[in-house]
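Note to self: keep these together.
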Amino acid sequence: MTADATRTGNEPDTAGPADPTSVARGGAFWAWTALGLVIVVGLAALTRYLEQNVPTWAEGTAIEDIGAAVEYPVYAILLGLLGNVAVTLLGWRDRIAAAFRTEFFIKTGLVLLGASINLAVIASAAGPAIAQAILLISGVFLFTWWLAGRFGLDDKLRALLASAVSICGVSAAIAAAGAVRARREQLAYTASLVIVFALPSIFILPWLADVFGLSDAVAGAWIGGNIDTTAAVTAAGALAGEEALQIASIVKVTQNALMGVVAVALTAYFTLRVERRPGAARPGLGELWTRFPKFVLGFIAASVIATWYLDGAGADGKATIAIVNDLRVWFLILAFVSIGLEVRVASLREAGWRPVAVFASATVFNLALALGLASLLFRNFSA
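Structure:
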């Protein structure tokens, strides 16, 4: 044993100063991490600037509708990808990687997302909205899971795709990634698919609702049950009409509220079935608790607190929640920028075309099932 290994800790330290090379390495690490944080925050600020100003710049031009519809995840991921190329060419990428705190940014943003889910609003349309959410999430999730299995996709990617297309897009994929411990590349791939499919839906679904002659309530329920991001639902609902927007928002918020239930189910399934070794003892509640993404509890708590607060604070409460929502957007922008910076093209290329085919097929299935449920449950609904 060495002298250091046998010391009790009471003797004076005669080993001399720390290795200067080690100190230099530590200093370099923090310097590179600080530079990485500057890059992440800078790209996030540019994202917010574009999100707030592009609609104004596009007014009166041929791209006015597109400029108004493009959301911050698009700018954040694109800027993150461009930043990825730049830092890779400069040879900085691995040195600044410690600043890409994707998981922290995402979890904080999702906890804050809970504040926008007013349980009292959901209760106002409890019957049809909750019924549609449960039936639609169950049907689309199981179909996507089955189809992804037929295409031979990895179970973790299956969970992310099924959660994203059936619940609420990127937010649900993030919750699922925490529950099944998916790779970051899988989350980046899924997030990209959500955005690619959500953008055209903003314009296509209101147009189809008009072609089909759907009532405002049915159109809103259809839009809210299909489009995978809340902001895109709001944009499409606004195009369809004021009542359609209200119903779409309620349906989407109801689906968002069920994200925690799906996270619990995925945690249990992967712990008890997918990752359980043959012949191994059945995992106990302690193992389930270890695997469960704890931020989901924060998400639920934020929903309960916001509902209670709004009930007593009135208009002042809405202003406070608006501040929380703005903070949430900042954290999610930081997360999406980090996802873009972390993406490795080789990993995405390895996934190939099969996830795209699964996601596209599941989207078509979601469109058909949601239209049937909306027509059945909301045909006589009046706000």
